[in-house]
Design goal:
Blueprint (H helix, E strand, L loop, with lengths): L3 H9 L4 H23 L2 H34 L7 H7 L4 H9 L8 H14 L8 H25 L5 H21 L6 H20 L8 H8 L1 H23 L2 H38 L2 H11 L10
């Protein structure tokens, strides 16, 4: 691999580029979810989150399982994931964030209570059997704690908290994240996700501070539109396609290029055929849940198909 040397150098310090990308995704999620709460009521938020996340997730999961089945048949092997693993990945832990949002906790001081409770869940589930429901609960709860750091950035951005209080809250949440990571089911990956989390925080914080001077990029905007299905599809499918093409051509560059192109193409298709229609349906349904005067105010925002205004 051309960049193997760079990856080995980063690996000495436990820094994994893939982990950094995942953690940045979590921070961005924590930052933008409260904007959705401001546009619709809490019932509408739960409905919109469901249709925003799950149909796309399930379709991408089916695509991944199909690719793995084809690979298993070609190699005379078996699909490496069973029903339990597929079911766990198909449920996510968005219900926790939705429940917190329902109680209005995402923008209140009680966010620390939520984070502490999640950290306790991680510690309690430490001894759970691998791949059991309790183990998956604790594993995902670890990263919900990290997502809440993004919520703190949102609170500072909106002036709901001062910068000193925001920094203190973020550091406190990061401490809970470390506790959950080291003492919960996610501890086998702690050596990677601790240094990678530090890098992700530095990158996110730097971009936040420099946000006024960042230029607009139409290509990055288009890429952001397909970021969710691309996030779900590129990992396992990319590795399978890269391996298959490399075995046929013996050319690493052709294999990687094909995998990247395939991942982008399928992500675009899922975005247009699944993500956009189901997201718009969720918006329409959330509007119907608004009643009386609230409906008149919230409906135009809840059901608009145009992108949300980009924070300045």
């Amino acid at each position: 691999m051309p960049w193997a040397g760079a990856l080995r150098w980063l690996g000495r310090y436990g820094i994994e580029p893939g982990a950094i990308g995942v953690l940045l995704f979590f921070l961005v999620s924590g930052f933008v979810i409260p904007f959705s709460l401001e546009r619709i009521d809490r019932r509408g938020f739960v409905v919109r989150r469901f249709f925003r996340l799950y149909p796309t997730l399930w379709v991408c999961l089916l695509v991944t399982l199909a690719v793995l089945a084809v690979q298993a048949r070609a190699l005379g092997a078996v699909v490496p994931y069973g029903r339990r693993a597929a079911g766990a990945n198909g449920l996510l832990l968005a219900v926790v964030a939705g429940a917190a949002a329902w109680r209005g906790w995402l923008l209140s001081r009680a966010v620390a209570v939520v984070a502490a409770a999640l950290a306790v869940v991680c510690v309690v589930t430490r001894g759970a059997a691998l791949a059991s429901p309790l183990s998956w609960l604790g594993f995902n709860a670890t990263y919900v704690v990290f997502i809440l750091i993004g919520v703190v950035f949102h609170c500072v951005y909106r002036g709901l908290r001062g910068v000193p209080a925001g920094v203190g809250s973020a550091l406190g949440l990061f401490g809970l994240y470390l506790l959950a990571l080291h003492d919960g089911p996610a501890r086998p990956v702690a050596s990677i996700y601790v240094p990678s989390a530090v890098v992700a925080l530095v990158v996110f914080g730097g971009l936040y501070v420099a946000r006024e001077g960042l230029p607009y990029s139409a290509w990055l905007d288009r890429l952001s539109n397909i970021s969710y299905p691309l996030y779900l599809l590129h990992g396992i499918n990319g590795y399978v396609i890269t391996r298959a093409i490399f075995l046929v051509t013996g050319n690493y560059y052709v294999a990687v290029s094909t995998a990247v192109l395939a991942s982008l193409s399928v992500a675009v298709a899922v975005h247009h055929l699944v993500e956009t229609p189901t997201n718009n349906f969720g918006r329409r349904l959330s509007r119907r849940l608004c009643s009386g005067a609230d409906a008149a105010v919230l409906a135009p925002l809840a059901c608009s198909v145009s992108p949300s205004p980009r924070p300045s």
